[in-house]
Design brief:
Catalyzes the gamma-elimination of phosphate from L-phosphohomoserine and the beta-addition of water to produce L-threonine. Its cofactor is pyridoxal 5'-phosphate. This protein has about 500 residues and is an alpha/beta fold. About 45% of the residues lie in helices and about 15% in strands. It has helices at about 15-25, 45-50, 50-65, 70-80, 110-115, 120-130, 145-150, 170-180, 195-205, 210-215, 230-250, 270-280, 295-300, 325-335, 340-350, 360-370, 375-390, 395-405, 425-435, 445-455, 460-465, 480-494; strands at about 5, 10-15, 30-35, 90-95, 100, 135-140, 160-165, 185-190, 220, 260-265, 285-290, 305, 355, 370-375, 415-420, 475. The protein has a six-stranded mixed beta sheet with strand order 4-5-15-10-11-14, with helices on both faces. Strands 9-6-7-8-16 form a five-stranded parallel beta sheet, sandwiched between helices. α3 packs across α11 (about 230-250). The protein binds the ligand N[C@@H](CCOP(=O)(O)O)C(=O)O. The site of ligand LJ64HWYM has 12 residues, from α7. The ligand N[C@@H](CCOP(=O)(O)O)C(=O)O binds near residues 140, 225, 226 and 318.
Length: about 500
């Protein structure tokens, strides 16, 4: 069996998983995919009898086959250690009749930590055989940025540059990034939205002249976004581990199907669930939950992906995305590897702003994926009812998913709602959703009031932000992002 990755848009260029991780994105702008995905299955009975670490080693062993077992074992130990506030890493807890998969127990209080505590380990192993310095260039709508900064800060021969949309992340998300210390980090706000940042980052990766100038100094660029297969693969683990927790608790019988509801903008988190299904996890449905930027929900309903719509700023900012990168991978797998089709759909998206998939392809997608949307009012109502009726304090992204899950007709399956961030990253919106007047209150006053109102405690890494100096104040236009990356490389590596 071949164990290579290639682009979603062409099969000509085969690379190992280490090379795919180092590159981040394929040279033709496609995303790395593997035709052998799904040929090797996880042993579900074994998964149910073991913990998160062992499952992580096995998932990564399948998805990243050119890493040696001992390399992966070391990566897993380093990624999932005492920086997590629970040894379970991603515990599953009851949520009324459903279940909550808590993904926010890592150092930056968001699900991104599961992959971004791992990616620097994977990158370091891959880099050892390559020799170049690596600058990680990342676009964020709020959570990926801080998780990438935390993961890569201080990693030898590696730098990290993060771009976020000015004024479009929460106060806490902003401070998490703006206070990040480290000689190898750079943070810059951009005038625009997340899509502007992500599109420009992709243009930077495709800029051959820039690549040559950097190569002359021994520097290569890579990505910490879910376009990088090294970001995606670690996220598969928590789907299996959640299933194992439910099986051990007697909630599901071995082999019984489970539904997962995932709040998603860039489609990475829910695609990891699809990878888990391909690796043998009994998945009934993957429910895609959108906020007002409901381009994915429209697509799964109609087969037309149309980004020509107003970009909405919502109280779930990490999902404020209209160009959803990882859908490209799903199109590849669901079209049985039709690179030509994927390339033409992506060309349509770039040139016309929309594409329409063939009916048969849509039907295949709808067999696996359900969808729904929740606007800000529904999100606030869900935060309030989940707290008042179930005693669970959830963040706005989780509330979007919970609201969507509540609206999906019950089919008798056990249902798991992915909880992607700590509510304290969005203290003022969560406090307001609970009915408190937050006018005139600072973000930290809201955090304190939320603790008082609920008897819960903000993670120390969030409440401690108030004592840290702001180190990053750069703001630039989209057109200047390439120059910012180049100057970051010069500062970090030369
Ligand atoms: N929701 C993300 C946006 C980028 O998505 P990614 O999963 O591709 O990194 C964020 O919070 O930054």
């Amino acid at each position: 069996m071949n164990s290579f990755y290639h682009s979603t848009r062409s099969k000509l260029d085969s690379v190992t998983s280490k090379q795919a991780i180092l590159r981040g994105i394929a040279p033709d702008g496609g995303l790395y995919v593997a035709d052998w995905l799904g040929q090797t299955k996880m042993d579900l009975a074994a998964v149910c009898a073991q913990g998160f670490h062992q499952t992580a080693r096995q998932v990564l062993g399948i998805l990243l086959p050119d890493y040696a077992e001992d390399e992966l074992a070391a990566c897993v130990e380093a990624a999932y250690g005492s920086q997590w506030d629970t040894p379970a890493v991603t515990p599953v807890t009851p949520l009324g009749a459903d279940w909550l998969l808590e993904l926010y127990h890592g150092p930056t209080s968001a699900f991104k930590d599961v992959a971004l505590q791992m990616l620097p380990q994977l990158m370091s192993v891959a880099r050892a055989g390559d020799g170049r310095d690596v600058m990680i260039v990342t676009a964020t709508s709020g959570d990926t940025g801080k998780a990438a900064l935390d993961g890569f800060a201080g990693v030898p021969h590696t730098g990290v540059t993060v771009f976020y949309p000015e004024g479009k992340v929460s106060d806490v998300q902003h401070l998490q990034m703006a206070t990040q210390a480290g000689d190898n980090v750079a943070v810059c706000a951009i005038r625009g939205n997340f899509d502007d940042a992500q599109s420009e980052v992709k243009s930077i990766f495709a800029d051959e002249a820039l690549a040559q100038r950097l190569a002359a100094s021994g520097v290569a660029l890579s990505s910490a976004n879910s376009i990088n297969v090294g970001r995606l693969a670690p996220q598969v683990t928590y789907y299996f581990d959640a299933y194992a927790q439910l099986e051990r608790a007697g909630v599901v019988k071995l082999g019984e199907k489970v539904t997962f509801c995932v709040p998603t903008g860039n489609f990475g988190d829910v695609l990891a669930g699809y990878y888990a299904k391909l690796l043998g996890l009994p998945v009934a449905r993957l429910v895609v939950a959108s906020n007002k930027n409901d381009v994915l929900t429209d697509f799964i309903t109609t087969g037309t992906y149309d980004r020509r719509r107003d970009f909405a700023k919502t109280i779930s900012p990490s999902m404020d995305i209209l160009v959803s990168s990882n859908l490209e991978r799903l199109l590849y797998y669901m079209s049985d590897g039709d690179c030509e089709l994927v390339a033409s759909l992506m060309a349509d998206l770039g040139e016309k702003g929309f594409y329409q998939v063939p009916e048969g392809l849509l039907a295949k997608i709808q067999e696996v994926f359900a969808c729904g949307r929740a606007d800000d009012d529904a999100t606030r109502a869900e935060i309030a009812s989940t707290w008042n009726e179930l005693g669970a304090l959830i963040d706005p992204h989780t509330a979007v998913a919970k609201s969507v899950l509540d609206a999906v007709p019950a089919d008798g399956t056990v249902r798991v709602c992915l909880s992607t961030a700590s509510p304290y990253k969005f203290s003022s919106d969560v406090l307001a959703a609970l009915g408190q007047d937050t006018s005139g209150m600072s973000g930290f006053a809201c955090m304190d009031a939320l603790e008082k109102a609920t008897g819960t405690t903000a993670p120390a890494q969030l409440s401690g932000l108030r004592d840290l100096p702001v180190l990053h104040k750069d703001v630039c236009d989209r057109a200047k992002m390439g120059a910012f990356v180049e100057s970051s490389c010069a500062r970090v590596f030369l």
